[in-house]
Design a protein that fits this description.
12 helices, 3-stranded antiparallel beta sheet, 9 strands, alpha+beta, about 50% helix
Length: about 300
């Protein structure tokens, strides 16, 4: 196993690491694993593939990661845009704010932006001064700026499917109890098993599938020819972030002596990562075959984790 080092869409994990600071934040691999995102797969509404658990979303994941790390913060949301911007400006006077979800397509400093696409994103806001928002965007844009109304339009997050509340931000991060990454990871494992088993307590759109049935359904779609929007989602986002999550989770669990689960996670990461070429090349036969190889690994991972923590 080799640690992957490089770019990738880890916006909320990178944003949380930034606001905590280099002396307090664990690695982004640990943060991402603590969110629970590596432990499952879902086909949202029967059409949108995401390599994260059934019913999971980044808001749930961030809260879980902070709880595992012994962190507390103030989460605020809602209100008219001018009140939200005033709240953001006041918060930044005491330190950076983690803002999101935002509509990524409306962050106008990013090349090709300007149209809402439903892609969610998280950033760290440093200041709101003279009608301008100054921020660190973990998608490769340190010290980016936007006119405050333009930032508010993205921050409203009207097109982000898992939230109906605008202007969400987290501030005032406090370490309520001391914990180290290994302790946090061990404590999160029952939750990982719960994600893999399929939680029934979270709302999901009708037709959503999880686990092996989700991957098998996606394989059938690939064999018949993927819809362009599904291929684009897989090609530009879902495969790369999914493969990285799985690899990072394997690297986090192996030092804990959890060789069995780590081996399954590594296998999953290699299978999923290898699907990038067939997606780009349009080789749907190879894509379908790879997905069918991936499908049974989620139950194997659940069994391996249950055995390891019993």
């Amino acid at each position: 196993m080799l640690t992957y080092t490089g770019s990738g869409p880890y916006c909320y994990s990178n944003a949380l690491a930034m606001v905590l600071g280099p002396g307090a934040a664990p690695s982004t691999a640990v943060i991402e694993t603590l969110t629970g995102s590596p432990f499952g797969v879902q086909l949202i509404g029967g059409t949108e593939p995401m390599f994260d658990p059934y019913g999971w979303d980044p808001e749930t994941g961030l809260d879980d990661a902070m709880a595992a790390l012994g962190l507390r913060c103030t989460r605020t949301a809602g209100g008219p845009a001018d009140e939200a911007l005033a709240r953001l400006a006041a918060a930044c006077a005491d330190g950076p704010a983690l803002a999101g979800p935002l509509e990524m397509g409306l962050l106008l400093y990013q090349p090709g932006s300007g149209t809402a696409s439903g892609a969610d994103h998280y950033v760290v806001v440093l200041a709101v001064e003279n009608g301008t928002v100054l921020l660190h965007d973990p998608q490769g844009h340190p010290y980016a700026t936007l006119p405050a109304p333009a930032f508010a339009a993205a921050w409203r997050a009207e097109t982000v499917p898992y939230t109906d509340t605008p202007y969400v931000m987290r501030t005032g991060f406090v370490q309520e109890r001391a914990t180290d990454p290994d302790e946090a990871l061990r404590g999160s494992l029952p939750g990982a098993v719960g994600w893999l088993a399929g939680r029934a307590d979270l709302p999901v759109p009708p037709g959503t599938l999880g686990g092996a049935p989700a991957v098998e359904a996606l394989a059938e779609r690939a064999a018949a020819g993927l819809a362009p929007e599904t291929r684009e989602l897989l090609r530009t986002f879902a495969v790369q972030v999914g493969a990285r999550r799985l690899n990072d989770a394997a690297l986090c669990l192996r030092p804990l002596g959890l060789d069995g689960p780590a081996a399954v996670l590594t296998e999953q990461s290699r299978i999923l990562g290898s699907l990038q070429y067939p997606l780009v090349a349009g080789d749907d036969e190879a894509l379908s075959a790879g997905l069918r190889q991936l499908a049974p690994t989620y139950e194997r991972l659940r069994t391996a984790l249950e055995t390891a923590i019993a």
